[in-house]
What does this fold into?
Amino acid sequence: MKTIKTNKGIGTTRRGFLGGTAAAGAYAALGAPALAQEKTVHLGASLPLTGPYEKVSKIYRDAYDFWTKTSGGTMKVAGEDWKVDWTIYDDENNASRTAQLTEKLISDDSVDLIVGTYGTDTVLAQGAIARKHNKLTVQAGAASSRVDQEIGGHTTYTLVGYIKDYPALAMEYLATVEPKPTRVALVTMDDPVYREMAVGVKEKCEKHGMEVVFEDVLPMDTRDLRPTVLKMKNAGEIDAIYNTGWDVICIKLVEEMSALGVNPKAFVGGHLTTSPEVKATLQGKLKDVIGVTLWLPQLSYTDPFFESPAAFAAAFEAEYGYAPTYHAAMAYSVPIVYERALMNADPSDPFATDPLRAQLQSLEVETVWGPISFDEKGRISRGGAPVLQWLGDGPEPKVIFPEAIAEVA
It folds into this structure.
């Protein structure tokens, strides 16, 4: 069992990120206030820090750390500043291990608040154990409707919109293009959450007079996309291709399409074209690729600590050496959600489940992630994902749809 446990910060050991400096020292440098009577709020989580989601999990871990540093290592609870302590384990993207680790966090580590893991099955496993102990979770790592059906509202509150809605605005945008793409190819990963996204694409195709003429459903461990691209090349004229997979799948598809001369009118790379790995690998090949994004720094939101998402992004990149994706904005916002719900808690029992649930259910707050409030299933109230396109010689992502927030015509 791999453990990450730190005080006032999150790191790969009990020492902090910053050049081996002790985490407590790092926060002292940020001017954390001295507490007359030190009280501690203990946050706990697991993340798939090894395995296929290692890179995205690092973003979540860095974002939790960034919030802790930004807040000065404290959280406002029942009107007082409480010191923050974190325990994070590696669940290796294994739902059984996630359940075991959540049990450990609750029974052995006595955490006060549970922060969500990443991935549908692991989030569900975490929520099942939390429900057994009448604890709550706030998560930003699973967009599947299964979360709402099994643990939503009563146990789990979710900061990411429905996965099925991710493609909605992209397909609406394609319907406005002249000439409109009519023959669509779909690359679907063989996992329930990606199948849900594919259903969303198909429904929008039907609505907008497009036809899915080719679909390849790929095992989750697929890394060779040449067979898929060859099949698309032999499938007749294809106007648009939609990738439901993550950043690695997007990269492999673009590389093979370039090598094999597959050049549709539009390629929608999916929801992770803004991953640093995509730009670093594809560079100029990324030009004209379309993506959907849940967040970009150029959006206009306010935050308890930052005047804008752009300011957040600049500070995050200065700290960790890479530009934050939407995962960072979401994960950073999880502790803010908890803090807002706990500000006026009963000092005699601030983490009591029923009052905390009521506060979360009625919450209205804005962070760099955007406005946050929850529906009856504990899902953030949010529509489809805005559409971006990688433009210019750089290239750089620009919002192109919907028109109300578009950066380019």
The longest strand covers residues 80-90. Residues 6-36 have pLDDT under 50 and may be disordered.
